Amino acid sequence: MIRKLIGVCLVSVFLLAGSACSTEVWKDNAYSPEERAADLLTKLTLEEKVSLMLDRNAPIERLGIQEYNWWNEALHGVARAGRATVFPQPVGMAASFDRDMVLDIFSVVSDEARAKHHYFKSQGEFGRYQGLTMWTPTINVFRDPRWGRGMEAYGEDPFMNGVLGTAVVQGLQGERGEGYDKLHACAKHFAVHSGPEWNRHSFDAHNIKPRDLHETYLPAFKKLVIDGDVRMVMCAYNRFEGEPCCASDQLMMDILRNEWGFDGVVVSDCWAINDFYNKEAHATHPDAETASADAVLSGTDLNCGNSYPSLIEAVERGLISEEELDVSLLRVLIARFELGEMDADEKVEWSKIPHSIVSSPEHGTMALEAARKSMTLLRNENNRLPLERGGLTVAVMGPNANDSLMQWGNYNGTPASTTTILQGIRQTLGSDDRVIYEQGTEWVGDRIFSSVFDQCISEAGQGFRAEYWNNPDREGSPDVVTQVNTPFHFHTGGATVFAPGVNLTDFSARYTSTYYPERSGEVFFHFYVNGVTRMLIDGEPVFEHRSNHGGRKQEYKMDVEEGKAYEIELEFAHYMSEAELNFNIGYMAEVDIPASVARVADTDVVVFVSGISPFLEGEEMGVDLPGFSGGDRTDIALPAVQREMLRALHEAGKEIILVNCSGSAIGFEEELTYCQAILQAWYPGQAGGTAVAEVLFGDYNPAGRLPVTFYKNVAQLPDFEDYNMTNRTYRYFRGEPVFPFGYGLSYTTFDYETPELSSEVVSLSEEATLTVSVTNSGDFDGEEVVQLYLQKPDDADGPLLTLRGFKRVFIAQGETVDVKFQLTPEVIEWWNAEAQRMTPLGGDYRLMVGSSSRMEDLQAVPLTVVAP
């Protein structure tokens, strides 16, 4: 930071008069981004400067500066901008324990992001989710399975978050050389931020032990800043030790800027600055001017929200000087020049990436490989898996068996196609096998959706009359008139129009039909929309939605009477990016467990696809159902209705294979009694159904490992709002979980020989090597995840053990592979009480090597580290 500000601000800003910087340096890419930014800074009015410190940079027409929107997402694929390849949710990627795979995924994601950006730009679009600054990755430690957003992170271990988060950054940003940066990644949410969701705008993470701060909450951010050269950091909503994170001098200035030397852009989480002065939130500041000035002075350069316009008055009131404001703005401008966003596309090499690569078959193959590697086999009694094909009758059941939207996770794009788990099983089985599908339950509660779309009749028959206009306001006569006979699945991704002759953008539609209910009751209208939608019943508006955050699931319900007719009119208009409209209508029927069990009575095996959904766990959601509150979970058990179904199937003598989809740990206490096998499939992305089927039938040997502890129940968890690490995560948990961190099964077996150290005594200035030989002694080729942990026996307050390395290696049947770990300073880092920081530290340690964090799966090797 200081390196650039002194060199650029003092030389290029204050000494510009009479120098080369008095010319149009900012327009010339022969100059450095720092020089160009410094030159442009001198040409801006105060009002223009402030406008450039918002997430939507307004155009400055007098200078020819185009609009730029900083807000874009790429959590596991380009998000909320229409068609894109959808990879597994980050917690699923973490289950792969494969850094190289994560790097490859985000190299592909950055290709798609660049291609989409230049396509949007060619259409004159500069909106949200169309830029080059991706607010990814989330590297907060998943310290408690109740946190709804934990699925966005890379598990509960700070080392793993740092290693995989750095791979994300490197994949997104590309090699930083003399040319333009490919994209800018963003490490979020800085720091000490992992739920609850319901009070995040007022919560104070306080009384945090310095050791917990530096040993657990900061290491991943430090690694991304120092090793990953991440170009953006997002500060969190909550307070830390009394101060809002976005104005915390300790976090933002002392640690991030001064200690770590971060010289990139800090962006506030969206509307986080408003929380400073909102009486229902932190209320630490009297007004927007004071809040905004404090945030900028603490190093928050960019405001996602609407507080920073008050900086104009803040300058006038003397709360901040224009020169102090320039320090932040300079970083913002440098970033825009680093990306080439201020220059014509023909000057930017990345603009040559063709749009045809977006959601391409090749990228789909990578999504499948990522889904395969995320599959985590937790139980396989009597080697029941893999299942044998040939005359097999399979019942596929459960709320997640045929749900493509669940597989997409959250902060997602829309894939060209999705294979559900039901579809994957059907496609994998042979002609003499049979599948019976019986959903049986929803996620929660005693009702289940049943479509009545066929009871909607237009003048042309079953379905809806569809009228389209090639303008956004349905002006004039419709340009296209057609009929829609099935539930709507419209999406303009891949240049696919809603109907022949309809524009891809700037179009509108009206769909009309008459609904003749065959019985009275409460009917549900389900929408998944990206656009502007309005529904009228008998001419009266009853539902409206404008998608500001990409595709969103919406619902409207009403009571209907048998024998009446209801005129339905659904209006739609393109709003931003790629348009999307999914629509269906149906009843919520009562769950009938005995009837469902009876319908699968004659099957050989039941594959029950259980779990929860990103529509239940996630960011600050309005969900209030048993076990869920505001996006978080209040119970980690499988929802009661699913447990009841599994119990009934077990009592009926059915053999049950449980495939669980969730973004967080499930307390599988009862399920161990009912189920012969348990496969944790996470939210596996577009190809998840194929990956699950390949594992179930032995076409792929699973090697996923748990990146989070699967506790038995909430009684094993500390207070959700307590951020101290006592009894949290595998590193400090002293109880017995259902399944430990790092655990997962294979269809083959691996034998470990005694690990060998190149030297059992090493200096802090030296590096040693640990080698362990692993043999595949089973009947299948397979991959093993070899894990390295560090333990310091004389540190009673420290972690029981802590991850310091992992390697996923392929080992053919009967073969042996030597796996080596370099004992770098990062590996032997430990809490230094004198320095109050994590440093390489002398002392006696144990290196623990094996297949999971469970002690019986590890072999210990003593190591002594001495000062040079």
From TrEMBL:
Biological process per Gene Ontology, one example term: xylan catabolic process
Assigned keywords, A-Z: Hydrolase, Signal
Span of the signal peptide: 1-22
All residue ranges annotated as the PA14 domain in the record: 459-602
Pfam families: Fn3-like (PF14310), Glyco_hydro_3 (PF00933), Glyco_hydro_3_C (PF01915), PA14 (PF07691)
SMART domains assigned: Fn3_like, PA14
Molecular function, one GO term: alpha-L-arabinofuranosidase activity
InterPro entries per UniProt: BXL, Fn3-like, GH, Glyco_hydro_3_C, Glyco_hydro_3_C_sf, Glyco_hydro_3_N, Glyco_hydro_3_N_sf, Ig-like_fold
NCBIfam families cross-referenced by the UniProt entry: xylosidase_Xyl3A
Family: Belongs to the glycosyl hydrolase 3 family.
Annotated protein name in UniProt: Beta-glucosidase
Species assigned in the record: Geofilum rubicundum JCM 15548
